[in-house]
Specification:
Blueprint: H1 6-11, E1 15-22, H2 27-38, E2 43-47, E3 57-59, E4 65-67, E5 70-79, H3 93-109, E6 116-118, H4 125-134, E7 142-145, H5 148-155, E8 160-164, E9 169-173, E10 176-179, E11 183-185, E12 202-206, E13 212-219, E14 222-229, H6 235-238, E15 244-248, H7 252-265, E16 269-277, E17 280-287, H8 293-299, H9 303-318, H10 329-333
Parallel strand pairs: 1-2, 1-5, 5-6
Antiparallel strand pairs: 3-4, 4-5, 7-12, 8-11, 8-12, 9-10, 13-14, 13-16, 14-15, 16-17
Helix pairs in contact: 2-9
């Protein structure tokens, strides 16, 4: 359900506001919204899985959005985890499909109402790898195929990694997530992801030996990195208690690579995965909706949360939003830009 700012609801005016498109369980968005509101930045949240449905929405061509009776003028649109799959179903299959498609279309176009948008551009894995290679970055040899075993033979590699072409989870019914974590396969023993239906296109990559694995977050002009220690790629999903996470200084070559990719795709936020061979990064993939709170908790920091709040707050002010209370926004949200 929408969480309109109290001022917009009280006066009926279209108040400048940060707009967050997500769902109720989004902890990252909740923490960032709390920081912003404390600093006087209005935040309006639209949750796909709100109890009783999303509610009435009215969108005008002049940039005004009305949600559950509150009128706002979005300054920044942050697309997180809003998915039509989370909407409750209705009895008519045709009408249900039309509604979900219509919501998907609306969410794709809502960022046009604001001066700044984050998370609405989501380049696919093949586009990411192709762009990275064109920038001179090292990437794993990769094949997408409906038959991973044949793909592994085409790679003529030793160990391989098999993973989903899109996200690592699906939502068969609202609120029920099913995960398909990556697999590392021994030479000659390439497997499909467990539970995959026949004919599903999957990513098959050569396994890249490495010294370290880095998860790097670019948030506006800031960057924060974590070193991740795990035995197998699927450990993040299947054995998270055995995964080690530490906040580390960002390796300069990885930072340069991430910034080049962010510029190429016009991204203001993304989570990047790199394998480090000595000082040389090998780019794996990026995620424009990548969560970070789990990494922060394991490392005992909240650097990315505050960086995102600073990024959204600064963009809100640059778009003419202003700050409701007389607070110095950046010091309040945590001084320092790395």
């Amino acid at each position: 359900m929408a969480e309109p700012s109290e001022r917009a609801e009280r006066t009926g005016r279209a108040e400048p506001s940060v707009l967050v498109l997500t769902r109720r369980g989004d902890r990252e968005a909740g923490l960032v919204a709390t920081l912003l509101r404390r600093a006087g930045v209005p935040v309006t949240r639209l949750d796909a899985d709100a109890p009783g449905g999303v509610g009435d929405v009215l969108c005008t061509s002049d940039g005004v959005l009305e949600i559950a009776g509150a009128r706002i003028r979005p300054t920044v649109t942050w697309h997180r985890h809003f998915s039509p799959r989370a909407l409750p179903g209705c009895a008519d299959p045709g009408g249900d499909a039309l509604r979900r498609d219509a919501w998907a279309a609306l969410v794709r176009q809502l960022p046009l109402l604001s001066q700044v948008s984050i998370g609405d551009q989501e380049p696919g894995q093949l586009a990411q790898l192709r762009q990275a290679a064109s920038l001179g970055l090292r990437v794993p040899r990769t094949v997408v195929a409906t038959d991973p075993r044949a793909a592994a033979s085409a790679l003529a590699s030793g160990r391989t990694v098999v993973k989903a072409l899109d996200r690592h989870y699906v939502e068969p019914s609202p609120g029920l997530l099913r995960w398909f974590p990556p697999l590392v396969c021994a030479p000659g023993r390439t497997r499909v992801l467990r539970g995959t239906a026949p004919g599903t296109p999957l990513v098959v990559q050569e396994y890249v030996p490495h010294d370290r694995e880095i998860r790097l977050y670019l948030t506006g002009t800031e960057h924060h990195a974590f070193e991740v220690a795990k035995e197998r790629p699927e450990d993040l999903w299947t054995r998270p208690d055995r995964v080690g996470v530490a906040a580390v200084a960002t390796p300069p070559p990885a930072l340069s690579a991430a910034r080049a990719l962010a510029e190429a795709f016009s991204l203001r936020y993304a989570a990047f995965d790199f394998l480090m061979q000595g000082d040389d990064p090998v780019f794996l993939e990026l995620n424009v909706h990548g969560d970070w709170r789990w990494f922060e908790r394991r490392a005992g920091v909240e650097t990315v949360t505050r960086a995102m709040a600073r990024t959204l707050g600064a963009a809100h002010r640059a778009a003419g939003g202003g700050v409701g209370r007389r607070l110095a926004l950046l010091p309040f949200l945590g001084a320092g830009v790395s």
